[in-house]
Amino acid sequence: MPTTALLPSCYLGRVLEHGRCLPYVLLLLTSTTITPSLAQESPQKLDPAETSVAAYNVSVRKIPVIGGVLTISGERRWDGFFVGVEKIQFEPGAKLVFTQKAMNMGGDLYILAKEIISVSQTNPGTITWERPPLDVPPAKGSATAGGGYPGDDRAGNPGSNGDIGNMGYRGADAPRLTLVAQKTTGPVLVRMDGANGGQGGKGQTGGRGGPGGNGHPASQDLVNCRRGAGDGGPGGKGGDGGPGGPGGTGGNGGTFTVITAADNVALATTLFRVTLTPGAGGTGGPAGDPGLGGDGGQGGQEALPWCRGNGSAGPTGPAGAPGAVGKPGVAGVAGNYLVGALGPTDVDRVLTQ
Fold first, then answer.
1. pTM of structure
2. What whole-number distance in Å separates Cα of residue 288 and Cα of residue 303?
3. SS3 for 14?
């Protein structure tokens, strides 16, 4: 298909769908060898215009492909945003992991090779990405304590209930990956799943109860004790702990697009075992601690000579109740698996520009 049919209004790494641009992960193939047991579900087919746009977005990058063989064994961490080499060979169980440093170079990732080989049929190589770590949201401290003097002999004012904890951080979306290859031999796993959401923050601690009022002082006249000293009031009840914050939303799965020759579409779509699942919502935050009860008030003062003995101090107020564990976060959105067909010469043109 001629490149004049391409639509430059979609910038690099995007394809058209119903007049809007979508991010994508792209694979171009001209020859494949597969293991039927690794077949995937049928992807969504791109129309010719969408296929042309996707191919154009690869061509304009002009990423060089150097000679030689890049052998991937164990876990190979890759800090660049592209791999351009004549041949990539995955040893059994090997992983090519694009790091966060690679992701921070612009978002889109590329693999260009004339041939990609996965040595093992039963333990194939994997292409994936490094999920960034997520911190726990900051705690909210303690709610307001019960304040103000309640009055003689009265119980202290209650502490405020704790607020809900902070929401967990959102999981990262899977990056966009473009993979261009003339020939692929053996199965390759592609793991472009969204990252899980972070844990919610701890609920706010309940406020401490206020102090109880002092006991009333004793009262006497010239010859009698009219009223003895009163006991201090009990401390105020502590506030209830706040519920934990909700877990963070999971990241979205990536979008994986295969573009190949029209007569190779059926075979190519069974080559890769692809997962583009959304990240799970984060766990709810821990329950907030209950607020402590307030101190009891001081006993009232004696009045000599007729009213002997001070009042007793009031009891400490009861603690509040602990908060509830936060609710789990919401999962992200699943990615898209797409396939488009080009003529053989158009595939070659994309790979040689």
1. 0.80
2. 46
3. strand
Q: 75-93: per-residue pLDDT in tens?
A: 999 999 998 888 999 999 9
For 250, the token pair is: 């999971």
- Write out pLDDT tens, residues 135-152: 999 999 999 999 889 999
pLDDT for 10 beyond 60 = no
Beta carbons of 52 and 4 less than 8 angstroms apart: no
Sign (positive or negative) of CA dihedral 83, 88, 91, 93: positive
Burial of 121 (0-12, 13-18, 19+ CB in 10 A): middle
155-170: average pLDDT: 98
Torsion sign over Cα 263, 264, 267, 268: negative
- The Cα 173–Cα 332 span in angstroms is 8
Residues 219, 176: Cα–Cα separation, whole Å: 83
How many angstroms from the chain centroid is the CA of residue 315? 47
Q: Where are the domains of the chain?
A: 3-352
How would you label 212-230 residue by residue, b for 16+ Cβ within 10 Å and e otherwise?
bbbbbbbebeeeebeebbb
**Maximum CA pair distance of the chain?**
120
What average pLDDT does range 239-264 have in this prediction? 89
Q: How far, in Å, CA of 14 to CA of 22, rounded? A: 5
Q: What's the rounded Cα separation, in Å, for the pair 42 and 23?
A: 20
14-17 and 20-23 beta bridge pairing: antiparallel
Model confidence at 64: pLDDT above 60: yes
List, in order, residues 6 or more apart from 220 with CB less than 8 Å away. Answer: 226, 303, 305, 306, 307
Rg over alpha carbons for the chain, rounded to the nearest Å, is 34
Q: Are the C-beta atoms of 223 and 305 separated by less than 8 Å? A: no
Q: pLDDT tens digits for 257-279?
A: 777 778 776 766 777 788 999 99
Residue 177 to residue 27: CA distance in whole angstroms? 8
